[in-house]
Design a protein that fits this description.
The protein is built from 16 helices and eleven strands. With about 475 residues, the protein is α/β, with parallel strands linked by helices.
Length: about 475
């Protein structure tokens, strides 16, 4: 695994990204040479900014592929799935590169060349994807993991590995029972604990041991044996780090407060705050400029539908527990909560208007919050702000819930792009685990990744209610 800031990146995906960038840049030069193959002069000399054109082209196509989820790990992908995702990605890239060349005409190298460039790019990416698919089938890039523990926490770790949502591909070699830990796994997967952990790891060729035990009191963790494994080259990880690394979550049900206190992360330095604020203003103002026609049209449609208010303000909890009023396009009928206390949004909520249902799916209702970002009440990326009524309940029911208020809330965030819209306490717990990850590991690089994932959510309509 590679780390940028505190965020883990799969080596497999990093290698794939690097190879595809090389293919995209090479396709520009190859397309130009093929197009002017009969020319007596070198066509490259006719385009002095070709290196910049190739970089812009590669950047736009990589962004398009990222926005449609082509860099999300799927170890069980098929050729048809790759092809179905690649075609819309290239179509989106074609539209964006057309806009880029319109804005920067000096970088344009002609329609004939562009057509060849897209052809060579598609063929190259398709071949590389097939090659990576084959390496996945042959179990390359795979690690063998041994879990110390066979209880509920170990089962959750195994379920995560089995789901295919991890940043790395694993083969589980077995589980070793821990003292005072109730077994929740089939007997055939539990290994006998009659030998030392190092001997068990070597016999099963395990490269990593994950300590997945909730109750660590009373000598339940064989520290000396685990140290012996680490000294002999077997990587040793606890379950909290495993979930953080592989699922971008910090699990609250098995979390030790000392792990948060003594671990890395939680950068609140002046430089981080400066970069964060600059990113917020640049992205927010850029999106406001691009989406202005959409916002004007939305405002007109909301008013025409029921002649009600276009915007609505709602009290939310921000950084440090201070409240502020968030501004959104109205997506529900007037007086939606006139009957009493606040309610969770639900699937196919009857309070939602026809226009409201559309702008929620496309996340257009969130755009007026750009004003909250400019005022400094919110960030563009951060935990989703909740209403004081729900925050009071959730702080009492969920441990560490108040940690998410140590930074500004965001229009989009890790929980919004990784988990469907929350409508219960259980959903709030799942979302908190993503929010805690962001609070602990937030960086400019992670903000950019979340921004790209947000584009995917908007394009594919994921998670909206």
């Amino acid at each position: 695994m590679l780390r940028i800031g505190n965020h883990h990146i799969s080596k497999r995906i990093s290698l794939l990204l690097l190879i595809e960038i090389v293919i995209l840049v090479t396709s520009v030069y190859l397309g130009l040479n093929v197009r002017f193959i009969d020319s007596l002069r070198s066509p490259i000399n006719e385009f002095p900014d070709l290196w910049l054109s190739s970089i812009v082209f590669a950047g736009v196509i990589v962004f398009s592929m990222s926005a449609l989820g082509m860099y999300q790990l799927q170890f069980n992908s098929r050729f048809r799935t790759i092809l179905i995702r690649l075609m819309p990605s290239l179509a989106l890239g074609f539209g964006l590169i057309t806009v880029a060349f319109y804005v920067l005409p000096a970088l344009y190298f002609g329609r004939g060349v562009l057509g060849l460039v897209f052809l060579f790019s598609a063929l190259g990416i398709l071949c590389v994807r097939i090659a990576f698919l084959k390496t996945s089938q042959f179990n390359l890039f795979e690690s063998r993991v041994l879990f110390f523990g066979a209880g509920e926490l170990a089962k959750e770790c195994a379920d995560l590995v089995g789901s295919g949502r991890t940043n790395h591909k694993y083969q589980i070699v077995g589980f070793v029972e821990a003292p005072n830990d109730q077994t929740c796994l089939p007997a055939k997967s539990v290994l006998p604990s009659t030998e030392a952990l190092l001997a068990t790891a070597r016999r099963h060729k395990a490269t990593e041991i994950v300590v997945s035990v909730k109750n660590r009191r009373g000598g339940g963790i064989p520290i000396k044996e685990l140290l012996d494994c680490k000294l002999h080259g077997v990587h040793v990880t606890d379950s909290a780090t495993f979930f953080e690394r592989e699922a971008c979550q910090i699990r609250v049900d098995s979390l030790q407060p000392s792990w948060l206190v003594f671990g890395n992360g939680f950068d609140q330095s002046f430089m981080r705050a400066f970069c964060k604020r600059t990113f917020d203003l640049v992205v927010s103002l850029l999106i406001a400029f691009i989406s202005l026609p959409v916002m004007v049209l939305t405002a007109v449609l909301i008013y025409v539908e029921d002649k009600g208010p276009i915007f609505y303000k709602q009290e939310r909890v921000g950084k440090g527990g201070k409240t502020y009023f968030v501004l959104k396009f109205r997506s529900m009928r007037n007086n939606a909560e006139a009957a009493g206390s606040p309610q969770w949004a639900s699937k196919k909520d009857p309070r939602t208007t026809r226009i409201g249902a559309i702008i929620r799916v496309l996340r257009i209702d969130e755009l007026p919050q750009i004003l909250n970002v400019v005022k400094g009440e919110m960030s563009f990326v951060g935990p989703r702000p909740e209403r004081p009524y729900f925050v009071e309940q959730l702080c009492q029911q969920i441990p560490f819930y108040d940690v998410r208020h140590s930074i500004k809330p965001g229009i989009t965030g890790m929980a919004q792009v990784r988990y469907p819209y929350g409508a219960s306490v259980q959903d709030a717990i799942q979302k908190l685990q993503y929010d805690l990850y962001y609070v602990k590991n937030n960086s400019l690089f992670l903000d950019m990744l979340i921004l790209i994932d947000t584009v995917q959510v908007v394009l594919l309509g994921k998670g909206a209610r």
